[in-house]
Amino acid sequence: MKDKKAPSLNQRIRGDIEGRILSGEWAPGFRIPYEHELMAQYACSRMTVNKVLTALAESGMIERRRRAGSFVARQPPHLEQVALEIPDIALAVNGRGHRYGFQLLERQQRRADPAVPEELRLVGEGELLAMRCLHLADGRPLALERRLINPGAVPETLAVDFSAHAPGSWLLQNVSWTRGQHRISAVAATAAEAALLDVPVGTACLVIDRQTWRGETPITWVRQKFLGDAYDLVARFAPGAKI
Length: 243
Prior knowledge:
Pfam families: GntR, UTRA. Keywords: DNA-binding, Transcription, Transcription regulation. By secondary structure, the chain is α+β, with helices and mostly antiparallel strands. It has 7 helices and 9 strands; from the N terminus they run αβααββαβαββαβαββ.
């Protein structure tokens, strides 16, 4: 696999601001440094700073007020907490002493299919980025992935070479999210899926459907089908913990 590129200056500035907001360091209503202050801090142009702040405003994380500056947006009171972490499959595989691999099977930039509910929920009738991927461990298939990305929320994804970067890993490293939802089920591998996973038809698979949002803006929807004997879900809790 190719070495991952360092984040661009735009991504670094946006990541720094998002990190302070999501960590609570910059609370709702906090005034973000003025454009000239960010220009001095990052030694960049006004155009670069303005592009970052515009993207953050469009995502709902900040509010830009004429002549007053930019402020951390006040989020709606019904934000949910994700019950499970979102794993980086590459890190998880490597962390267990195996060699991670990845294949991009298909990539399309197209309009949403009105007959597919998850596409309509993500972008309405707009455009999306659709991909099919195969994850491997030690050269053997581990999981199939179907991923949809909302380029309106993350426009930089249109320029990323996802044949070199697994989309899930890239999103976790470059895009912040505030809310997520998992749906877990089990299915038997179809003939087409079994061929890609190199297993008999009907092999049990664990399925995770996941969607993430930033504020009220959908970011991505993904369906991952893992070989049933190769993936565990573990939840840790304690007596008296709040749900």
